[in-house]
TrEMBL record:
<dbReference type="GO" id="GO:0005829">
    <property type="term" value="C:cytosol"/>
</dbReference>
<comment type="similarity">
    <text>Belongs to the TRAFAC class TrmE-Era-EngA-EngB-Septin-like GTPase superfamily. EngB GTPase family.</text>
</comment>
<comment type="function">
    <text>Necessary for normal cell division and for the maintenance of normal septation.</text>
</comment>
<dbReference type="InterPro" id="IPR006073">
    <property type="entry name" value="GTP-bd"/>
</dbReference>
<dbReference type="GO" id="GO:0000917">
    <property type="term" value="P:division septum assembly"/>
</dbReference>
<protein>
    <recommendedName>
        <fullName>Probable GTP-binding protein EngB</fullName>
    </recommendedName>
</protein>
<dbReference type="InterPro" id="IPR030393">
    <property type="entry name" value="G_ENGB_dom"/>
</dbReference>
<dbReference type="GO" id="GO:0016787">
    <property type="term" value="F:hydrolase activity"/>
</dbReference>
<keyword id="KW-0342">GTP-binding</keyword>
<keyword id="KW-0132">Cell division</keyword>
<dbReference type="GO" id="GO:0005525">
    <property type="term" value="F:GTP binding"/>
</dbReference>
<dbReference type="Pfam" id="PF01926">
    <property type="entry name" value="MMR_HSR1"/>
</dbReference>
<keyword id="KW-0378">Hydrolase</keyword>
<keyword id="KW-0131">Cell cycle</keyword>
<dbReference type="InterPro" id="IPR027417">
    <property type="entry name" value="P-loop_NTPase"/>
</dbReference>
<dbReference type="GO" id="GO:0046872">
    <property type="term" value="F:metal ion binding"/>
</dbReference>
<feature type="domain" description="EngB-type G">
    <location>
        <begin position="28"/>
        <end position="197"/>
    </location>
</feature>
Length: 204
């Protein structure tokens, strides 16, 4: 694989929405999964990384999405996992989401890493921790994206960053703001490292 460039992100396009494993597209190249709680800013982060307004749709009803949305470019493929943790969703639906997410993470042969989106004001909630622990048991690498960092002061940002780094030493962690375009290059570099299997920077 040649170096991942910003063009690989900007060229990202929607492939399909898969409500179950039978609907997954055929594996092709390195695939990065994006996971996170409902309202953590996952769609906004994906759109900012790809510089594509509306690529990942933001639902007006948190927790509504019950499928994995797949996107692709020449060298990258993204899997946008359903948001989890929304309180008003029935328990049976929550269980189905968890089974879909864990089934995908356990069986997808081209999965190169997971970007876990967390609101910087509320990081490492219960299911975040469960997902990281379960994924690491499967040998998956995690990059933790602390979104909406612009809602915090600089001191608060640094304190949260250090706290998450201490608690999750096996994952890479960064601050991110889609609104302020903070952390886009750093996130792209982490994704490139997952995709290529080496710790390389995105070519600018």
């Amino acid at each position: 694989m040649t170096s991942i460039t910003p063009a690989d992100f900007k060229a990202m396009r929607f492939i399909c929405s898969a409500p179950n494993p039978r609907a997954f597209p055929e594996p092709a190249g390195a695939e990065i999964a994006f996971a996170g709680r409902s309202n953590a800013g996952k769609s906004s982060a994906l759109n900012a990384l790809c510089e594509r307004t509306g690529l990942a749709r933001t639902s007006k009803t948190p927790g509504r999405t019950q499928a994995i949305n797949f996107f692709t470019s020449d060298q990258l493929r993204f899997a946008d996992l359903p948001g989890y943790g929304f309180a008003k969703v029935p328990p049976a639906v929550k269980a189905a989401w968890q089974a879909l997410i864990e089934g995908y993470l356990a069986t997808r042969t081209t999965l190169a890493g997971v970007v876990l989106i967390m609101d910087a004001r509320r990081p490492l909630m219960e299911f975040d921790r469960q997902l990281i622990g379960w994924g690491e048991e499967q040998g998956l690498g995690f990059h933790l994206l602390l979104t909406k960092a612009d809602k915090l002061s600089r001191n608060q940002q640094l304190n949260i960053l250090r706290k998450v780094e201490r608690e999750m030493p096996d994952a890479s962690v960064q601050l991110f703001s889609a609104t302020k375009r903070q952390g886009i290059d750093e996130a792209r570099a982490a994704i490139a490292a997952f995709a290529t299997g080496v710790n390389e920077q995105v070519v600018q």
